[in-house]
Amino acid sequence: MEKNIDKFLDEIVLKVKEERVKRNISQLALAQILGHKSPNYIAKIETRKHDVSYNLSHLYKIAYEFGIEVTDFIPPIQTPLK
């Protein structure tokens, strides 16, 4: 299950990055949206270093700024067959 969670978080990070790049928003600009002064935080998230990821508050702020729904970042959950 832990592997599934990591994959789920990786997909969220990838979707946020894709939207950021599509909108031509720098890591610094995204960091500022989240209340940080340095792009290092976003770089850590995008490389998934130290198991850092976006939280729900981050996703809300990003979705609001991008004019999309938070759910646009959330991939479907892959449930095991029973």
Pick out its properties.
single chain; 82 residues; mainly alpha; globular
Give a structural overview.
The protein has 82 residues and is an all-alpha fold. The protein has one domain: lambda repressor-like DNA-binding domains (434 Repressor (Amino-terminal Domain), Orthogonal Bundle). It is built from 4 helices and no strands. The protein has helices at 2-22, 27-33, 40-47, 56-66. Helix 2 (27-33) packs across helix 3. The radius of gyration is 13 Å and the shape is globular. The two termini are 15 Å apart. The model has no long low-confidence stretch (mean pLDDT 92).
Proportion of residues in β-strands:
under 5%
Rg over C-alpha atoms, rounded to the nearest angstrom: 13 Å
Structural class: mainly alpha
The helix content, as a percent range, equals 55-70%
What is the mean predicted local confidence, pLDDT? 92
CATH top level assignment:
Mainly Alpha
According to DSSP, the number of beta strands is 0
Ranges where pLDDT stays below 50 over 5 or more residues in a row are none
Let me know the largest β-sheet: none
Number of helices: 4
CATH topology: 434 Repressor (Amino-terminal Domain)
Give the N-terminus to C-terminus distance in angstroms: 15 Å
**What is the CATH architecture assignment?**
Orthogonal Bundle
The SSE order reads HHHH
Shape summary: globular
* CATH-assigned homologous superfamily: lambda repressor-like DNA-binding domains
